[in-house]
């Protein structure tokens, strides 16, 4: 058998809904030398990561750390550690990732209740409040920005509702963290889980997570340290967490002074996650978000300047992704194919009811920048014209320039 050749990926501008191009600084950090799991350098880096992500999540939650997995592993770790069979969960479903929360909660054996709104809309507060009164769940699980629809769910009033019913408030911030306002403590969020591959500008494979003292207490009530590393006096719960890998009570112990030998921390991913947070905080969280807002607006204006429609409730649009209505008669996949082959630019397709109807274009992380926006708009115009769709010459780039001129005025 001949060996495959050395890895030589093509040069791409990743302007989809994520993953996006990793910041070169993150990739450089990820090529740093490995150290042992308990090397003082490593444990110090773990502590630094906790502190850095407290600032990214805007929280003082002690349990702010990384789960070694893609973002859905962060969700699964939170749910399986909190939920016991029969526990009630309420999920507002606004798109694909609301369905994912339902799916994961159901697999934990929870009794899952939903309120559903059409894709592209946010769930009105009253709808959630009524359901909360009826269900009185242990967990209210909300996707902050549902990448599949590009819309951000407001959190106003949710923490008051949760306090009324003794409910834990969970947020999936995979697609929003860093680039959209998210205030864990001020909004009373107990658990939030994210990922690196969107606004944070890293590769997928590490999930920054944060847990309040309340959530930590719920999880620790089920603490059961595995045999082999169990010490005298360690609790053995009668109803342990149903996953070993995602048992946050043991993961917390690994990230504590005890340094319980639960798993082997993914050192290279930790280096990457650390650099992602450093990049955000060096620019300043507010300026980082403002940059996402400007380039997201420029992209949306450019899309409209090409005569294309924008999908969803734009009043609640995420800063970092725009949904573009594929015009009648245009083959959405052919356009994506030409963008990739001819220009090296990737934009996203959509799922479920939006498949074939909406493209998703992202402007996030190090790709939230003017040349990436203008290049994408110019390329899209060219490909659409070749596909026979008549559109205003230069209209996309001109409208984006207008937004940039306003932003610097
Ligand atoms: C909002 C949201 N939640 C969860 C996920 C799942 O993330 P992953 O693919 O990293 O497991 C994604 C992925 O795009 C997402 O956008």
From TrEMBL:
- Tell me which residues bear N6-(pyridoxal phosphate)lysine: 198
Task: Tell me which InterPro entries the record gives.
Answer: Aminotrans_V_dom, PyrdxlP-dep_Trfase, PyrdxlP-dep_Trfase_major, PyrdxlP-dep_Trfase_small, SP_NH2Trfase/AEP_transaminase
Q: Does the UniProt entry include the keyword RNA-binding?
A: no
Reading the lineage from the top rank, the first entry is Bacteria
- Select a single GO molecular function from the record's annotations and give it: alanine-glyoxylate transaminase activity
- Any single GO BP term: glycine biosynthetic process, by transamination of glyoxylate
Q: Where is the Aminotransferase class V domain?
A: 42-348
Which cofactors? pyridoxal 5'-phosphate
Q: Which UniProt keywords apply?
A: Aminotransferase, Pyridoxal phosphate, Transferase
Q: What Pfam families does the record point to?
A: Aminotran_5
The entry's substrate-binding residues are 360
Q: Which family does it belong to?
A: Belongs to the class-V pyridoxal-phosphate-dependent aminotransferase family.
PANTHER family found in the cross-reference section: ALANINE--GLYOXYLATE AMINOTRANSFERASE (PTHR21152:SF40), AMINOTRANSFERASE CLASS V (PTHR21152)
- Return the protein name: Alanine--glyoxylate aminotransferase family protein
């Amino acid at each position: 058998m001949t060996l495959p050749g050395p890895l030589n990926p093509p040069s791409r501008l990743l302007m989809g809904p994520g993953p996006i191009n990793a910041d070169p600084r993150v990739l450089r950090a990820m090529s740093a030398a490995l150290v042992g799991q308990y090397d003082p350098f490593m444990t110090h880096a773990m502590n630094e990561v906790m502190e850095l992500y407290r600032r990214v999540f805007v929280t003082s939650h002690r349990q702010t750390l990384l789960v070694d997995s893609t973002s859905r592993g962060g969700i699964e770790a939170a749910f399986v550690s909190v939920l016991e069979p029969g526990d009630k969960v309420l999920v507002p479903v606004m798109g694909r990732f609301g369905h994912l929360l339902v799916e994961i909660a159901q697999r934990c054996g929870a009794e899952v209740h939903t309120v559903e709104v059409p894709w592209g809309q946010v769930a009105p507060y009253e709808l959630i409040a009524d359901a909360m009164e009826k269900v009185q769940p242990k967990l209210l699980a909300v996707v902050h920005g549902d990448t599949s629809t590009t819309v951000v769910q407001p959190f106003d009033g949710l923490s008051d509702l949760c306090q009324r019913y003794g409910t834990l408030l969970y947020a999936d911030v995979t697609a929003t963290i860093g680039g959209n306002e998210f205030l864990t403590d001020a909004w009373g969020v107990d658990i939030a889980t994210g990922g690196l591959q969107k606004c944070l500008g890293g590769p997928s494979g590490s999930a920054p997570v944060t847990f309040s003292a309340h959530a930590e207490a719920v999880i620790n009530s089920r603490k059961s340290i595995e045999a082999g590393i169990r010490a005298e006096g360690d609790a053995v719960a009668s109803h342990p967490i149903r996953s070993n890998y995602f048992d946050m009570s043991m993961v917390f112990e690994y990230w504590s002074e005890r340094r319980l030998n639960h798993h082997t921390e993914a050192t290279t991913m930790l280096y990457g996650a650390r650099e992602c947070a450093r990049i955000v905080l060096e620019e300043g969280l507010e300026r980082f978000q403002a940059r996402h807002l400007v380039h997201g607006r420029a992209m949306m204006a450019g899309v409209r300047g090409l005569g294309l429609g924008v999908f969803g409730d734009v009043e609640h649009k995420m800063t970092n992704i725009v949904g573009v209505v594929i015009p009648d008669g245009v083959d959405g996949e052919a356009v994506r194919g030409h963008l990739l082959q001819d220009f090296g630019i990737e934009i996203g397709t959509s799922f479920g009811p939006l498949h074939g109807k909406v493209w998703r274009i992202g402007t996030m992380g190090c790709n939230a920048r003017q040349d990436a926006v203008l290049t994408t708009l110019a390329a899209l115009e060219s490909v659409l014209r070749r596909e026979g769709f008549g559109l205003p010459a230069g209209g996309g780039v001109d409208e984006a320039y207008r937004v940039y001129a306003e932003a610097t005025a």
